[in-house]
Amino acid sequence: MKVPKKSLKWGILVAVALLAGVATVFALNFPGMSGVEKVKVVNGVVAIPLAKVSDGSAHFYRYTDGGKEIRFFVVKGSDGQIHTAFDACDVCFRDKKGYVQDGDSMLCKNCGKKFQTNRIGPHSIGGCNPSYLPAASDGRNVIVKASDLQQGTRYF
Q: How high is the pLDDT of residue 125?
C-alpha cells in the first residue's frame, strides 16, 4: 500500500507541531528551562544557593501562595552584593511585564526605564523601581522569608 506524498507531508508536519508543543510544555514546567524557576518554602523560608546566583546574571523565580504566583529575581551587582526584588514595580505592575537584565541594569519591560542593579534595595522604592524584596544570606544561601514574599501578592 502506497501512502500519498501529500498525506505523508501533512503527517510529518503534524508530528513536528505536536513535538514542539510538548517540548514547550516541558520547558515551562522544569526548573531552569523557562528562565523562571519555581521555588518552595521550607520552614518558612526560600533558600537559593549563593553559588547559583553569583554570576552577575539576574535569576528569576516564582513562588505560589494560595494559587497566586509571586515572581522575583536575585542578582549579584557589580558592587559584589546580592540584590533581590519582586519582578514588578509600583507603577507598571498592572501590566504584569516585569524586568529583564540589560548589562548592569534592570530594564522595565513595560515603560523601558533602566535601574542600576547596585541601587536595588530598601532605599530605592517607589516609582518604577524594582519593588524591593528583603533577603539575607547565611553564607551559603540567599534566604527569603515566605512572609516577605507574601507581601508582594498585590503586584501579581
A: 75
